[in-house]
Amino acid sequence: MGLQQGLKKAYANGSVTPTPRSGPKEKVVRYKECMRNHAANIGGYAVDGCTEFMASGAEGTPGAFVCAACNCHRSFHKRVVESDTETDSCDCSSITTASR
Protein backbone atom coordinates (compact mmCIF):
# COMPACT_ATOMS: atom_id res chain seq x y z
CA MET A 1 0.00 0.00 0.00
CA GLY A 2 1.57 3.30 -1.13
CA LEU A 3 1.68 6.58 0.73
CA GLN A 4 -1.08 8.16 -1.36
CA GLN A 5 -3.44 5.22 -0.81
CA GLY A 6 -3.02 5.49 2.96
CA LEU A 7 -3.84 9.23 2.91
CA LYS A 8 -7.12 9.02 1.00
CA LYS A 9 -10.37 9.40 2.88
CA ALA A 10 -13.35 7.60 1.38
CA TYR A 11 -16.56 9.39 0.43
CA ALA A 12 -19.61 8.19 -1.46
CA ASN A 13 -18.82 10.33 -4.49
CA GLY A 14 -15.04 10.53 -4.54
CA SER A 15 -12.03 10.90 -2.31
CA VAL A 16 -10.02 13.55 -0.52
CA THR A 17 -6.30 13.61 -1.16
CA PRO A 18 -3.91 16.08 0.46
CA THR A 19 -1.70 17.79 -2.07
CA PRO A 20 1.94 16.95 -1.25
CA ARG A 21 3.59 20.18 -2.42
CA SER A 22 1.11 22.68 -1.07
CA GLY A 23 1.01 21.58 2.55
CA PRO A 24 -2.27 21.06 4.40
CA LYS A 25 -4.61 21.99 1.50
CA GLU A 26 -6.87 19.17 0.38
CA LYS A 27 -8.46 18.58 -3.00
CA VAL A 28 -11.82 16.85 -3.16
CA VAL A 29 -12.45 14.79 -6.30
CA ARG A 30 -16.10 14.30 -7.20
CA TYR A 31 -17.61 12.48 -10.14
CA LYS A 32 -20.62 14.18 -11.71
CA GLU A 33 -22.79 13.37 -14.76
CA CYS A 34 -22.20 10.28 -16.86
CA MET A 35 -20.67 11.03 -20.26
CA ARG A 36 -20.90 7.51 -21.71
CA ASN A 37 -22.22 7.44 -25.27
CA HIS A 38 -24.63 4.51 -25.36
CA ALA A 39 -25.33 4.88 -29.09
CA ALA A 40 -21.72 4.95 -30.31
CA ASN A 41 -21.97 1.52 -31.92
CA ILE A 42 -24.71 2.75 -34.30
CA GLY A 43 -23.07 6.11 -35.01
CA GLY A 44 -25.29 8.21 -32.78
CA TYR A 45 -24.99 10.05 -29.50
CA ALA A 46 -27.12 9.26 -26.45
CA VAL A 47 -26.31 9.61 -22.77
CA ASP A 48 -28.35 7.97 -20.01
CA GLY A 49 -29.01 11.07 -17.89
CA CYS A 50 -27.21 9.90 -14.76
CA THR A 51 -26.29 13.12 -12.95
CA GLU A 52 -23.89 11.92 -10.25
CA PHE A 53 -21.70 8.89 -9.55
CA MET A 54 -22.84 6.72 -6.64
CA ALA A 55 -20.59 3.81 -5.78
CA SER A 56 -22.38 0.49 -5.75
CA GLY A 57 -19.90 -1.13 -3.36
CA ALA A 58 -17.74 -0.34 -0.37
CA GLU A 59 -14.37 1.41 -0.77
CA GLY A 60 -11.68 -1.10 -1.67
CA THR A 61 -14.01 -3.46 -3.53
CA PRO A 62 -14.53 -3.67 -7.30
CA GLY A 63 -18.05 -2.31 -6.81
CA ALA A 64 -16.61 1.02 -5.68
CA PHE A 65 -15.82 1.80 -9.33
CA VAL A 66 -19.30 0.98 -10.69
CA CYS A 67 -22.14 3.50 -10.52
CA ALA A 68 -25.25 2.21 -8.76
CA ALA A 69 -27.52 4.46 -10.85
CA CYS A 70 -26.33 3.76 -14.41
CA ASN A 71 -24.07 0.69 -13.99
CA CYS A 72 -21.17 2.48 -15.77
CA HIS A 73 -17.54 2.55 -14.64
CA ARG A 74 -16.47 5.65 -12.69
CA SER A 75 -14.19 6.72 -15.56
CA PHE A 76 -17.26 7.56 -17.70
CA HIS A 77 -18.35 10.22 -15.20
CA LYS A 78 -17.09 13.80 -15.41
CA ARG A 79 -14.27 14.31 -12.88
CA VAL A 80 -14.47 17.58 -10.92
CA VAL A 81 -11.61 18.62 -8.61
CA GLU A 82 -12.69 20.97 -5.85
CA SER A 83 -10.16 22.58 -3.54
CA ASP A 84 -10.23 24.73 -0.43
CA THR A 85 -11.77 27.98 -1.70
CA GLU A 86 -10.46 30.19 1.12
CA THR A 87 -6.79 29.44 0.50
CA ASP A 88 -7.00 29.15 -3.30
CA SER A 89 -8.99 32.31 -3.93
CA CYS A 90 -7.28 35.46 -5.11
CA ASP A 91 -8.33 38.94 -4.12
CA CYS A 92 -7.76 40.48 -7.54
CA SER A 93 -8.99 43.91 -6.40
CA SER A 94 -5.71 44.44 -4.54
CA ILE A 95 -3.57 44.28 -7.68
CA THR A 96 -1.80 47.59 -8.21
CA THR A 97 -0.52 49.00 -11.47
CA ALA A 98 2.89 50.58 -11.84
CA SER A 99 2.88 54.35 -12.08
CA ARG A 100 4.83 56.07 -14.82
TrEMBL record:
PROSITE patterns with a match to the protein in the record: ZF_HD_DIMER (PS51523)
Region (Disordered): 1-26
Signal peptide segment: none
Keyword Zinc-finger listed: yes
Cellular component aspect of the GO annotation: nucleus
Single biological process term from Gene Ontology: regulation of developmental process
Any Pfam family hit: ZF-HD_dimer
Listed GO MF terms: DNA-binding transcription factor activity; transcription cis-regulatory region binding; zinc ion binding
Entry keywords, A to Z: DNA-binding, Homeobox, Metal-binding, Zinc, Zinc-finger
Domain of life of the source: Eukaryota
Domain spans labelled ZF-HD dimerization-type: 31-80
InterPro entries attached to this UniProt entry: ZF_HD_homeobox_Cys/His_dimer (IPR006456)
Name of the protein in its database record: Zinc finger homeodomain protein 1
Species assigned in the record: Rhynchospora pubera
